[in-house]
Amino acid sequence: MATDPTTQTLAQLGATTPDAVAQRFAEVRTRFDADIAQRGSDPGDQPTLQAHWTGRKSGALTQIGENWLKPAPKELKPIVGQEFQKLKAHVEATLEAKRQALEAAAEQNAAARDQIDLSLPGVERAIGTRHLIRQTYEELERIFLSIGFTVVEGPEIETPYYNFEALNIPEHHPARDNMDTFYIEGSRAGHLLRTHTSPMQIRTMEKEKPPVRIIVPGKVYRRDNPDSTHGYMFHQIEGLAVDTDITFCDFKGTVEYFVREFLGPKAKTRLRPSYFPFTEPSAEVDASCHVCGGGGCRVCKFSGWIELFGAGMVNPAVYGFVKYDPEKLSGFAFGMGVDRLAMMKYGIGELPVLTQNDVRFLRQFP
Question: How far apart, in whole angstroms, are the C-alpha atoms of residue 114 and residue 258?
């Protein structure tokens, strides 16, 4: 490998005349220009070039100052100093110009990368969807609105009168125990979180004269231990129809219409006798299993039927609380668990997934 001339003195290089000194400096400049031409376009080489030519300890300019300028003879020192300053100015100016050019090029490239191409198609962004409970509510509302019902809403904090007493639920009924109901501590009136949306039946009949046809969607609260099918907060929709000459046949026809609309035209209904304080007679409404069509499967416990909700004809005792004449008026009422209906229709196995806000689950129901 050839010896770097900057590590030797001018005398060792045989530069003993002004012309020979100028020639040596011209050779160094040529070598610098070649180095810049070869490596100066790569930003990664800039630190190496800077250190090689202008480094304070071992840079070429430092070596020239130490080995050429300092030991130069008195008669050559002016020309050596002059050539050295010219070379130094050239090296520093060239390196600075190259640095600025590379930075400008980098900024242009970055700007080009960040520039928006308006001809490209837009980025499709994920958007929110209606929650499955909201979708089920809207479907239920659509069905009942189509046959003349209207939607009303009411407070989630109720009094015992509207939640129990006016619905013919006596004072010592188990449903009124604090083991089943959330009472609000410190409330003198004994306020509670409503256990059903039925209080709005009373509130509506207090304000409106018959005919009355309403559905009442909303949240309700009960002291249930959370598990795969129960929760302390769930969603319900109540229905009430009161008019002259409403019969059990009207009630049965309304129920059958709802089941066919919600589960499909092949769905069948069955009424089983039951008991509720605010309806008489009362019934549990069953529908033929939507999975097996009534043939029997694991979902319906091989019975062919699935329980949907409780319903019945309005108990005449309820009319006494709203000053309706039970001799002239009759009607029916029903209460459905919206969560249960959604689980059944969409094949959901566990209740908690409806309220856990897991996006992976929610995206299945756009």
Answer: 56
Q: Which two tokens stand for residue 350?
A: 């566990």
| Identity of the amino acid at 199 | P
At 23, the amino acid letter reads Q
Which residues pair with residue 240 across a beta bridge?
214, 333
Phi, psi of 253 (to 5 degrees): -65, -40
Maximum CA extent, the chain: 136
Q: What confidence score (pLDDT) does residue 195 get?
A: 92
Tokens matching residue 113 = 């990368």
**Cβ-based neighbour number of residue 308 at 10 Å:** 23
User: Could you give the 3-state DSSP secondary structure of residue 344?
Assistant: helix
Cβ neighbours of residue 357 closer than 8 Å, sequence gap 6 or more: none
Instruction: Specify the pairing of strand 157-158 against strand 192-193.
Output: antiparallel
Under DSSP, the state recorded for 261 is H
pLDDT at position 1 is 43
Cα–Cα distance between 327 and 109 in angstroms, integer?
A: 87
**What Å distances lie between residue 350 and 174, 229, 306, 344, 364, CA to CA?**
27, 6, 16, 10, 15
Report the alpha-carbon distance of residue 333 to residue 205 in Å, rounded: 13
The structure tokens listed for 67 are: 């080995």
Contact between 214 and 288 under an 8 Å Cβ cutoff? The reply is: no
Q: Which helix (H) or strand (E) holds 113?
A: helix 77-114
C-alpha triplet 177, 181, 184: angle, nearest 5° = 110
Q: Which amino acid is at 107?
A: E
Contact indicator for 259, 307 with CB cutoff of 8 Å: no
Q: Kind and range of the H or E element at 238?
A: strand 233-243
Mean pLDDT (10-residue bins), the chain, 366 residues: 72 83 87 82 78 83 83 86 87 85 83 78 77 91 95 93 91 83 82 93 93 94 81 91 94 94 90 92 89 75 87 94 93 92 83 81 78
Cα(287)–Cα(283) distance, rounded to whole angstroms? 13
Tell me the two tokens of residue 101: 């050019």
Please tell me the predicted confidence (pLDDT) of residue 2.
55
Contact of 203 with 234, CB cutoff 8 Å: no
